[in-house]
Design a protein that fits this description.
The chain is mainly α. The chain is built from 15 helices and no strands. The chain has helices at 16-42, 47-56, 59-63, 69-73, 77-97, 105-133, 139-167, 173-184, 204-219, 222-232, 244-247, 255-281, 286-306, 311-340, 345-409. The protein is globular.
């Protein structure tokens, strides 16, 4: 069994820097799910069509681990971050410039997927920096600040984007403003002291073999096995938030209310939830915290479906859902940081992040189907049931299986350093 080690010479910045660097990642998601979603609904597209577009945006994030090794074996983190920042800004502008009509849906889908490829590269670069710069005592807070930028950026991209779209006569204006803001988020990267490589890079083939070895060592550890299983479980997915703007009419919520609670205010609430959730994760078992947060989210979804569908309840429950989503995202990130080790950081973190998008993608699609078949309350009940079922399978199936496997192996189950 190999223990994870921390270099004493490592320069550790305040974890809040990761919030700034990853904010554009969230802006792309927020701009799509809130601003573009609202505009598509306004132009007559169905909730089911919008759900398909939202699900397509997760494809690059689901499969990014396949090309993540390029961030580990070529260039450096600063260079990859700046490349992804510029490309993400271009994608934001293009998403806003395409008229939100049914005829343009194929083109919009193509641009959305391309923009998410760019921001996926940005995310894996920041994740790699977190692993390289943060020691064990900071992993919960680092995960919280990281997800605060991710989800808070979603509030900015959605709320600010929608506010501009409602007041501008130029379709390209929201995307252009957000693109400039995202480029500004790259400024701290120019002053961040990136850790030096642990040795000279060898051939691409040798580096790829090393990446594969690191992934295998992680996967065969008990912590890695549980983390991989957790990625596939529909626990704390936050999928309903992808459709809040599309279903707002069922709660008789005005456009201004939608912009507020799913935009800037919702983003701030999620950011606070991330920071608080990260703080909690540094003070209890991180795997248990993640499961607890998922149960809270399922209860919130069921409660929103049960309560009267009024604008007030739309505000209360979407904000509560956002706060708990901050908990779940911080909990997952903290758990992954805890078990993954340092070697091939971009690839390993991308593997977990990619796999974690599978449940978000298919639960979003299920939500769209459930809405069509059973209405808004049915959509929320189905999401809650799926979440509870996922927690039950993980707690009573996967965890017991892991205990049996590692008891037979005589392995203590500690994470293996790369």
């Amino acid at each position: 069994m190999t223990e994870m080690t921390t270099s004493p010479a490592r320069h550790t910045p305040h974890p809040s820097i990761f919030m700034v660097l990853v904010t554009p990642f969230g802006v792309v998601s927020g701009f799509l799910t809130v601003t573009i979603g609202w505009l598509l609904a306004k132009h007559g597209l169905s909730v089911e069509q919008i759900a398909v577009l939202m699900a397509a945006s997760y494809v690059p994030h689901v499969w990014k681990f396949l090309w993540a090794p390029i961030a580990d074996i070529t260039l450096n983190r600063t260079q990859w971050y700046l490349i992804s920042a510029v490309t993400t800004a271009i994608g934001l502008y293009a998403m806003g410039a395409i008229p939100p009509t049914a005829a343009n849906l194929p083109l919009l889908t193509t641009v959305v997927v391309a923009a998410n490829v760019a921001c996926a590269l940005m995310g894996m670069t920041v994740q790699s920096l977190m692993v390289a710069l943060c020691d064990e005592s900071q992993q919960g807070r680092a995960g919280g600040w990281f997800q605060a930028g991710n989800l808070g950026g979603g509030g900015i991209g959605g709320g600010l984007g929608l506010w501009i779209a409602q007041r501008s006569t130029h379709d390209w204006m929201p995307g252009a403003v957000l693109a400039v803001g995202c480029l500004a988020c790259a400024i701290p990267m120019l002053f961040l002291r990136e850790p030096a490589p642990e040795g000279p890079r060898r051939s691409v083939a040798h580096e790829l073999v090393n990446v594969g070895r690191n992934l295998w060592e992680l996967a065969r550890s008990k912590g890695g096995f549980l983390a991989l299983a957790l990625c596939f479980a529909p626990i704390g997915s936050g999928a309903a938030s992808n459709l809040w703007s599309a279903v707002a009419g069922d709660w008789r919520a005005s456009a201004g209310t939608v912009a507020l609670v799913t935009g800037v205010l919702g983003g701030l609430v999620m950011a606070v939830g991330c920071v608080v959730g990260g703080w909690i994760c540094d003070r209890m078992d991180r795997k248990g915290a993640y499961i607890l947060f998922g149960l809270m989210q399922a209860a919130c979804a069921a409660g929103m479906g049960f309560m009267p569908h009024t604008e007030l309840n739309y505000v209360v429950f979407t904000l509560l859902y956002a706060f708990i989503t901050g908990f779940t995202y911080a909990g997952f990130t903290a758990f992954v940081l805890e078990i993954m080790g340092a070697g091939s950081a971009a690839t390993k973190f991308s593997l977990f992040a990619s796999l974690s998008n599978f449940p978000i993608q298919w639960v979003t699609s299920i939500d769209g189907w459930a809405y069509k078949k059973h209405g808004p309350a049915g959509m929320l009940y189905v999401e809650a049931l799926v979440g509870v079922a996922g927690m039950a399978v993980f707690m009573f199936g996967v965890m017991n299986l892991a205990k049996l496997i590692w008891r037979d192996r005589g392995n203590g189950g500690e994470a293996v350093a790369g």
